[in-house]
């Protein structure tokens, strides 16, 4: 039996759903900002920066960018990916060891855990591999945890640093690192970039890119519809994906081969797009502004 999504994609001649909320490197759109962010990551890795920082709003494409990076790292790199870590120093070390595939006895204290971690780094170094710890959702790290990470970067073998750290998080992470009491940590951040939201033209290109990757052979979203989507989302990719997906559903339900501005407005007025509280303001703007038809 065909699912609603099968009917939806078939109606528009698509191979797959173009605006899934699940991060997918195959759909990564290389805006100027995303290229700059990737360049920053590459620079941090190649120069063995102790700490590299990438921030952006929720849904700005940070995790998708991260997944792309993971697919490009060579065999000479041992990666430990840690997400949503919380707790004290001991908990942080346990999360790190687990990310590196290292077990730790439940009764082990901080000194034992740190010794285990240091041995792991030295073992990888002896095998010709360097270790990169990547913390996703790093805005959840408190001051104590960040200071602990700074201490991790002091582990070295002669002139060679054994560990690099990449922090991926929301804008408040930059605010935390900028605090006076974290000045020593900030000095270890050798590469950093903030992913901004998309402007209107970038959003047009972004939607066209994802539709093409999904199999579209012609433009389905009208320019006026995309302008309305930008007004409703502020250019945040995850919100753009949500409203584009809903707009395609509405167009399919109406048996319309294109997504027009009126369809986007109906999605907003029906309240099915939450958009982090942006949709109500977007509806008001659409009602107050002059409607344009670009047919």
From TrEMBL:
GO terms for molecular function: ATP hydrolysis activity. Gene3D superfamilies: P-loop containing nucleotide triphosphate hydrolases. Residues 48-199 form the AAA+ ATPase domain. It holds the Pfam family AAA_22. It comes from the Bacteria. This is Type II secretion system protein A. The lineage of its organism: Bacteria, Pseudomonadati, Pseudomonadota, Alphaproteobacteria, Rhodobacterales.
